[in-house]
Design a protein that fits this description.
Structural class: mainly alpha
Shape: elongated
CATH class of the largest domain: Mainly Alpha
Largest sheet: 2 strands, antiparallel
Number of strands: 2
Helix content: 40-55%
Number of helices: 10
Strand order of the largest sheet: 1-2
Strand content: under 5%
Order of helices and strands: HHHHHHHHEEHH
CATH superfamily of the largest domain: Ankyrin repeat-containing domain
CATH topology of the largest domain: Serine Threonine Protein Phosphatase 5, Tetratricopeptide repeat
Number of domains: 2
Length: 188
């Protein structure tokens, strides 16, 4: 495997495991970008392939908290797709967060991961598992950047679908748990 990151991005499950070494592959890191093979697996456009390979890498010790030289996290890579295996990708999102991926780290182009979930090309019902994973986090910061000069909170407040009432519920629970209002304006 010449470049295991690019290979994981384009291969099938069978091709990947024909070249896979559980002692080496999960820990390979590009010295120039800091990307790991898990970045390649999460960039794979085939949702079924992405889920199988990424889960195996995580099972074998791949680090979900890696950040590239340019500030991109594994959450940013996972959430940029056009097609999803909703159950599988939502479970991967949970595993990445449980393993240390930063739920609040904003990328220059995409903003914070919750803003990316909000922009996913799925209907409200399909997005519920992703929102549930994100809103279950007690370290979620709704005042992180979603786009230039706009926070995640401000972006979502304009939504009349599933996410706005769920965000309001999250903010009330956060305030109650912390005994004080969260930064920024509260949803009304």
């Amino acid at each position: 495997m010449a470049n295991p990151i690019l290979f994981a991005k384009k291969c099938s499950v069978e091709e990947f495991f024909a070249e896979y070494d559980p002692e080496v592959t999960p820990f390979f890191r590009s010295p120039s970008t800091r990307q790991t093979v898990l970045f390649g697996a999460l960039a794979n456009r085939d949702p079924a392939v992405r889920v199988v390979i990424a889960n195996r890498l995580l099972d074998d010790g791949a680090d979900p908290s890696v950040v590239t030289m340019t500030g991109v996290t594994l959450l940013h890579v996972l959430l940029t797709h056009r097609e999803f295996d909703v159950a599988g990708d939502a479970a991967l999102l949970q595993r990445l967060l449980d393993g240390g991926a930063d739920v609040n780290r904003a990328d220059r182009r995409e903003g914070a991961p919750l803003a990316m979930v909000y922009r996913m090309p799925l209907g409200d019902e399909e997005m519920v598992p992703f929102y549930e994973v994100m809103f279950a986090r007690d370290d979620l910061d709704l005042d992180k950047q979603a786009a230039k000069r706009v926070t995640v909170r401000e972006t979502i407040l304009g939504d009349g679908g599933y996410v706005r009432p769920r965000m309001q519920e999250y903010v009330r629970a956060y305030d109650a748990a912390h005994g004080e209002p969260t930064p920024g304006d509260h949803p009304r």
